[in-house]
Amino acid sequence: MRVPRHRPLLVLVSMAPSYERDALIEFLKTLQVLPPGTKDRIVDDRFRAREWPPVDLSEEKR
21: closest CA among 1, 5, 29, 2? Predict the structure, then answer.
């Protein structure tokens, strides 16, 4: 679907099918604002640096 650039995002989201809106909302819930001074963009629940993508242990054993 081609969308004009001047359309506000809220209008575009409201036009999307309900499944896509729900999926977008669930994705947005996973995002977090990091505290000031956090140097890494990918962190664990204690704001320590975390490797991404995670290491797959099954591949490590090969």
Answer: 29
The number of folded domains in the chain is: 1
Residue 33 amino acid letter: V
pTM for this predicted structure: 0.51
- For 27-61, how does the pLDDT look when each residue is reduced to its tens digit (9 = 90+)? 999 888 899 999 998 998 899 999 888 777 666 55
Could you tell me if residue 53 is inside a domain? yes
Residue 35 in domain: yes
| 3 lies in some domain | no
Q: Please state, in angstroms and rounded to a whole number, the distance separating the CA atoms of residues 10 and 37.
A: 31
24 pLDDT band, cuts 50/70/90, is: very high
